[in-house]
Known about the structure:
The termini are far apart. This protein has helices spanning 2-16, 24-46, 48-63, 70-94. The protein is mainly alpha-helical. Helix content is 77%, strand content 0%.
Amino acid sequence: MTLDVILGIFSVLQQVIPLLTQGVSTSSAIGNIVTQLEKWLPVILKEVSVLYEPTKNIIDALGNNPSTLPDQLKKLAEIDSQVDTAFEAAAKDVDPDAQGLG
Length: 102
């Protein structure tokens, strides 16, 4: 159930983020999204095989938004690194011969 809820929210976010334009309220909205990603990180990492792509899409969209502040970019980079690490570990669990993806 939790996974379905997060997938639904991520789907909406992926559609809304490109609509965000520059301004203080946009930076605030981006900050709220980053905060939610941080809160959901334990679930994202646990379900990384399903949540990897939508999480990466959201991180990329926020990272490319000109309203994303430097501290938000730093947090996104930290989340991105953790998601990549978890995904690579999950890939090795499926295929022990898998090499690093980065």
